[in-house]
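Let us begin with a simple case.
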Amino acid sequence: MFILKTLQEESHAAPQHGAAAEAAHAGGHGEHVPIIVEKLNEWLGPAVFDLQAKIMPPIYKVFGFMFGGNVWPGEGLSYEQYRGAGNLPIPTQVVMFLFVVFLALIILRFLRGRLSAESPTTRQQTFEVGVETIRSLLGDLVGPSGMKHFPVVATFAILILLSNLTGFLPDMVAPTANFNVTLALALTSFLYYNFIGIKENGLIGHLKHLCGPIWWMAWLMFPIELVSNMARILSLSMRLFGNIYGEEQVSGTIATMVQWIVPILIMPLGLLTALLQTFIFILLSMIYLGEVSHHSEEHDKGAALAAAH
């Protein structure tokens, strides 16, 4: 819990690319606040703060060990005092991720309206390459039934890629440079593939999958596999967060020392990092899905062969 709390605190200080690195910082937290975040907090902040003042104190009292304290930071404070302490009712990473979702919907709507089988544009062909790559990987890693997971995996790919690239926009921050966002993505992937495992194999079958192939070693393999599966949450979240946060830190530091030319020259490296980390996240998610799906398929094949015999 201490490690998670430290990562969550450190992830608030990621600098920006280029001139955005010299922009204003929020309160005493040193977090760059884009204009869109400031405006949204001006418009909706008081209402959100009033709602948080009602629901957050009880949550902190019960789950305070996860937040590093049993008292909500805004308890007993007015909205002005809460903002004066450097807090935002609507955090930067939440606004940025909502911006990414909105941007994704616009882009997909735009692409959908211009699809053509007779004369595809370069934009459509590029989009189709990404789609075919995911479809091929699902077929190889998950099996013939892998395409039913395409909407989830493709959603991960689009949201993570756009989140990574948002840091390149002026006065914007990458949501994935915040550990809370990457942790939420990792938890979603973890819960989804375990849900699929239970749905396809049943609860007992899914648990048997964690026991290994040798029954008399189950007492040893089960706790090892259980810890290994839980560690995937931290692995997925820290890998994505560490690379995007580190890239923004380096780019922001260089931008404060040498402006324009050098930051522009290292932008291709940041673009490569954004693409590579998106690919790694969805690849690992598909591998985890393949582990639970192949178990079900092997069981079905065995049952079909027995029935035919």
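The second case is a distinct protein. As before, the sequence precedes its structure tokens.
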Amino acid sequence: MQHKELIITHPGGAHFDEVTAISLVLTVHKTSEFTVERREPSEAELNDPNIWVIDVGDRHEPEKRNFDHHQSLDCPASFVLVAEYLGIAENMSVTAWWNFKDEVDRFGPAKASISFNAGDELVNENPVENWLTSEFVSSPESTLPILKNYGAWLISHAQLLKKQVDVWKNSRRLDIAGVPVMISETRDSVGLEEFHRLEPDAPDIVISLDRRDEGWRLFRYEGAPVDFSRIENDPLISFAHKTGFLAKTKERLNIEELTKLISKAVIR
């Protein structure tokens, strides 16, 4: 028999914050049956630890399952508070949108766009998000299966990113022609941008195994003094992107061979 639980969130318009927070609760507590009510909570409900109160109530009291942040600008958005309570915030925080969406909810899209150098506030206009939140407003109960699937994807994707970011953090570091490089025997390139954003001493070049063939994948971050199109005609290269950010070797070269090859792509 499923355990029945109640989630209360604010009435009016819906937002990424509470919808995402609720989706995480639904996913982590997947054996429970939930009812969602969009209204103001009573004092008795705020003091009842068996009721989830999310993004409303002016209280952050995890022990009572109260997860609002509007009482203080220093308090993270509700989806962050809920993730911390559920023990999944460390994984979730590696995602590119995590801190940005937190700031959007607390300070608005215009300020968040400036803080994150993300262009103007139009960056926050997402038709899928707008559709999902409007569906939640019109029929909270009918959207719960969708939210549960959404939460499951968010959590599994964050787990994958966190695992791969940790791979990059533990990769071997090299210096090739004065350019910092890291190398890892992984065929998965997931998490490279997240790693670069989180790592204060990120390299300019990443060497990993080609996912499709037997050689190496040579990747450089934007702004690095490297242009792999310079070595596109080298007999050791199977492919080099015309923009210079990526190249692949035909075989799994040793470090000495890689050093000589990559040195030719360094812009001096």
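Residues 3-163 form one domain. The chain has a mean pLDDT of 95.
Keep these points in mind for the review questions at the end of the chapter.
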